[in-house]
Specification:
GO molecular function: carbon-sulfur lyase activity; metal ion binding
Keywords: Lyase, Metal-binding, Zinc
Strand order of the largest sheet: 6-7-8-9-4-3-10
Radius of gyration: 15 Å
Family: Belongs to the Gfa family.
Structural class: alpha+beta
Largest sheet: 7 strands, mixed
InterPro entries: CENP-V/GFA, Mss4-like_sf
Helix content: 10-25%
Pfam families: GFA
Amino acid sequence: MSTNSYVTEGSCTCGHVRFQVVEDPLIVHGCHCRGCQKNSGSAFAINALYEADRVRLIEGTVEETSVPTPSGTGQDITRCKKCKVAIWSNYNMGGLRKHIRFVRVGTLDDPDQFPPDVHIYTGSKQPWVTLPENDPRVERFYEFRTTWSPASLNRLSQIEEYAGIKIS
């Protein structure tokens, strides 16, 4: 566990599930892929990526549902067992499925603190969504090494070492 003392909490809509995250996110995505549009029922999803061991369920029960993704690797969505709101997902993302959680920013108690660092899959963005002019964006997905901050890349290296994998 990191020595960073930053902690934030979140919940589902009905309040049955409470969770906390320790640390700043590795990165925050505004994802405009068709899968996120369908899964969220909206124009895009905003996900804050955290190491799995930094996301802690502190109250309630959850269930996991597997759904397809545009990449074909699928995702496991963790939902409140009562209200079915998506709390976080695990994507394969180069073998990191069990190691990184994509926390739905809207479930955090203070979501205003987590604007997207990058917009992804903008090639399928709804045409009426206007992104801020200076926000980084990519048509599909990005290269980790050129998009993530040095501190987040260091944390990614620790995950790779622990998992015995290497993300290109």
